[in-house]
Amino acid sequence: MSVTNDGVIWMNGELVERENAKISVLSHGLHYGTGVFEGIRCYKTSKGAAVFRLEEHIKRLLDSAKIMMMRQKYTVSELMTAVLETINANNLEECYIRPIITLGDGGLGIATTDAYPIDVIIAVWQWGAYLGDEALSKGIKVKTSSYTRFNVNSIPIRSKTCGNYVTSVLAKREANISGYDEALFLDTEGYVAEGTGENIFIIKDGILITTPLTSVLKGITRDTVLEIARDLNYTVKEQLFTRDDIYVADEAFFTGTAAEITPISMLDNRLLGTGSIGPITKKIQSAYFGVVNGNNRRYSKWLTVVK
What we know:
Blueprint: E1 8-11, E2 14-17, H1 28-32, E3 35-37, E4 40-45, E5 48-52, H2 54-67, H3 76-89, E6 95-103, E7 118-125, H4 133-138, E8 140-148, H5 166-177, E9 182-186, E10 192-195, E11 199-204, E12 207-210, H6 220-231, E13 236-238, H7 243-247, E14 251-256, E15 260-267, E16 270-271, H8 279-292, E17 303-305
Parallel strand pairs: 8-9, 8-15, 12-13
Antiparallel strand pairs: 1-2, 1-7, 3-6, 4-5, 4-6, 5-17, 6-7, 9-10, 11-12, 11-14, 14-15, 15-16
Helix pairs in contact: 2-3
């Protein structure tokens, strides 16, 4: 994924040319990862460009900032409006949206105070399938990472904090170098946690199972899939499971704003099911894209049209 210097970025209440959207090289967030962010998608629908679950994402962004003790002057409504303004200003029908709140240049050192300046930035760009179009239809190869996902008392799990993703970068690099598409984290007890930026579901005997909200981010796509699956009359369980459970699962898939619904075809050189997208995964994936593309009125509450 690459981002060009074309277009504009919303920064601290103003739309500025992307090349002029700058922060200090001494920003606290740059040095210590003290920022929080979201990943949001805007889809082309019959009613025009529409952002999927915008309010939920912005609420989670501000919750993350609260957990990180970063004071805020913007409301949910103001940031939602800013997202729509940024999409409009860039004339995009479909795009990925990255709001980020980060501590600015208030002095270096671990200690922070409420006096630190805070930068609030919203960028948008065109971005297709996170792991490639073929991944959505054929699935991806996954490797269990040598890195462990966080203990709930080692880092704020409910906050989508920038610094949290250092291990994701390392795990992803490790997997790619080894010939895999993605990595899978286990938690500190050895149970399956999540991917580098995705939640995970497995399917066994028609039942969907996903990791409970212990060592994982409270994913908005995860929540979407839970509701869709139940509406399709599937049994869904939130419970701990091991990588052995994935090895013998009928199907498995990742969920996330970037990854959407990406089937897992292989874990640690073991084929899952037929080694391609399974029938239940395909049905849920199809339902999901029907929702985000505005083709299912039942879930129209989740779409915010860009006007």
